[in-house]
Write a structure and sequence with these properties.
With 562 residues, the protein is mostly beta strands. 4% of the residues lie in helices and 45% in strands. It is built from 2 helices and 45 strands.
Length: 562
């Protein structure tokens, strides 16, 4: 059971599975019997690391079909000295969780955003449950300069590896500011692989343009003639263990309860003075270059110390350490469009030029929803680049139009996103001509006009995962779209509940294969090379464009070993 709103797309056209009248009567009779009696949900809360029972942990259950705002739908108890809990409920399906000071709150058999619901009924053991919660972990340490002294107020960023999208991604997780002693602490953390970085400015740094006076940190006036160039330095963003490129960073494996000390050492490097000739007429205004550094799976802005005109039409940018950057420059023709390129900054006085003749392109899209005269609220259109990263996101205006200026030339998947419901691009027309799929090529200097027709996910696929004919709880169930490489947003996942049941929501019309895999939570399940082996033994399903409501699989999905 996915505790959070499941984002996804897909549907089946096996048709809705219809129970026979005898099956319905038998099922109703069993449910009537069950509903007339009370059921126990009982077990033990234990430390997920040591296995020791935990006293005075608060255990809560919530009817998954009830309004969570209704307090009567929630029960909670404290565990006894031996970690035991005991709750009485009617027949139903319940979310079971435990919380205790110093521990990460967790649901039963939780894996990331997924967990297994407790289902009461004949033949299901709900009285000997083991509910595991892990003590939270702590990362702490100091940010230290080249002399071994603490750096006060350094910015510390923790990144975490996740596989929510089916591929390994490293994303920012939490930030902290080092104190006056350079110390930081980041908690609570649960288990996983983490990375950490620190950024700061040397307190003694002086950045002065070649021919312009300035002031140092104390307010004293300095100029290029009397400035000490050894003080014209900067700290590059530094990752553990003391490297300045994210792809060289060392991961920090963290288990529940760990207290891991990690010191980060910042070493100054010469700050470059970079030259920039603004294009066009300066009197009409222009845009200064912006700098970005790759930080794992995304680009992060890097601030320079400033820019000053050193001669007519020539600016000098200071405070940038040497390294590899993505630089965004105003276009050479009108100064308002934008060009961007990956540049290796290596030398003082280097002139910023992007004269490759590859200006950025632009995309204007008109968005419509099939079967509706208006767009739903809170919908966004996004462009995903060839590296699988979202590069641009924008919301349509009142006319259903959305504008993406200054797009780096390349291929992009066009996606639709909303926090309330799943959507997908059903049809796309470029310059009035229908094109296949939802991948758009943006040439340099182009100005594309695109018509997007969206469809919504309106089907919930339900079924059971089994192992040798018996319910298989806690396994990953995946709805795999046709051509998974190009349709990652159409994947749907769930975790089977105690009775083996699962529910895949907001499925978009299309062809799919449904599979169930044991112990697959750390798998790169969105990679075709990984998932193809399992799809060979999965169930083929089709969801047509008119399908709506619930689709119940006529046959259980047999669990496959990892």
């Amino acid at each position: 059971m996915n505790k959070f709103a499941q984002s996804g797309f897909s549907v089946l056209a096996i048709g809705l599975f219809v129970l026979s009248s005898s099956q319905i009567l038998s099922s109703q009779s069993n449910l009537t019997q069950i509903a007339n009696g009370n059921f126990r949900i009982a077990g033990t809360v234990v430390n997920a690391i040591s296995g020791q029972p935990l006293a005075r942990a608060r255990v809560s259950i919530t009817d998954t079909h009830a309004d969570v705002r209704n307090r009567e739908s929630i029960q909670s108890v404290l565990t006894s000295e031996d970690g035991r809990f005991d709750l009485r409920v009617q027949a139903g399906k319940y979310a079971l969780s435990a919380a205790r000071k110093g521990f990460i709150t967790a649901f039963y058999d939780q894996h990331g955003q997924f967990s297994s619901a407790i289902v009461t009924g004949t033949g299901l053991d709900t009285e000997n449950l083991i509910l595991r919660i892990a003590p939270y972990a702590v990362l702490f340490g100091k940010v230290i300069d080249e002399n071994g002294e603490p750096i006060r107020h350094a910015q510390v960023t923790v990144y975490r590896e996740d596989r929510l999208s089916g591929l390994s991604h490293i994303r920012p997780f939490r930030n902290a500011l080092a104190d006056d002693q350079g110390a930081y602490e980041i908690a609570p953390l649960d288990g996983g692989n983490y990375f950490i970085s620190a950024t700061a400015t040397p307190w003694y740094a002086v950045h002065v343009a070649s021919s312009q006076p300035g002031t140092d940190r104390s307010g004293k006036e300095v100029s290029s003639s009397n400035a000490d160039r050894s003080l014209d330095v900067a700290y590059p963003t530094t990752y553990y263990a003391d490297v300045t490129e994210s792809d060289e960073a060392t991961p920090i494996p963290v288990r529940g309860g760990d207290h891991i000390g990690v010191d980060i050492h910042l070493n100054p490097v010469p700050a470059l003075r970079l030259l920039f000739h603004p294009p066009g007429n300066l009197e009409t205004g222009f845009t200064m270059p912006t700098f970005q550094k790759q930080a794992f799976d995304r680009l992060e802005n890097f601030q320079n110390s400033g820019a000053q005109m050193v001669s007519p039409g020539l600016f000098e940018i200071t405070g940038i350490p040497a390294g590899k950057y993505k630089i965004h420059m105003p276009g050479v023709t009108d100064g308002q469009s934008e060009e961007s390129a990956d540049v290796d900054l290596t030398s003082d006085g280097q002139e910023l030029r992007i004269s490759s003749g590859e200006p950025n392109g632009g995309v204007k899209a008109t968005v419509g929803l099939l079967g509706s005269d208006s767009l739903p609220p809170q919908i966004n259109i996004a462009l995903r680049n060839s590296k699988g990263k979202i590069s641009s996101v924008a919301a349509p205006d009142a006319k259903g139009e959305v504008d993406f200026p200054n797009i780096t030339p390349g291929k992009y998947d066009v996606l639709a996103d909303s926090p309330t419901k799943a959507y997908s691009v059903a049809h796309m027309a470029l310059q009035g001509t229908q094109i296949s799929g939802h991948t758009l090529s943006v040439p340099s200097g182009s100005s594309l006009s695109v018509l997007l027709s969206l469809t919504s996910g309106s089907v919930t696929v339900e079924g059971f995962a089994t192992r040798s004919g018996k319910p298989a709880p806690g396994v990953m169930v995946i709805l795999v779209p046709k051509d998974p490489e190009s349709n990652r947003e159409l994947f749907r996942r769930d975790q089977s509940d105690l009775d083996g049941s699962f529910s895949l929501r907001s499925v978009i019309p299309g062809f799919y294969t449904i599979i169930a895999i044991e112990d697959a939570w750390e798998m790169d399940w969105a990679k075709p090379a990984v998932i193809g082996h399992y799809c060979a033994r999965g169930q083929i399903v089709k969801i047509n464009g008119q399908a709506n409501g619930f689709l119940r699989l006529p046959n259980p999905v047999e669990v496959q070993s990892k």
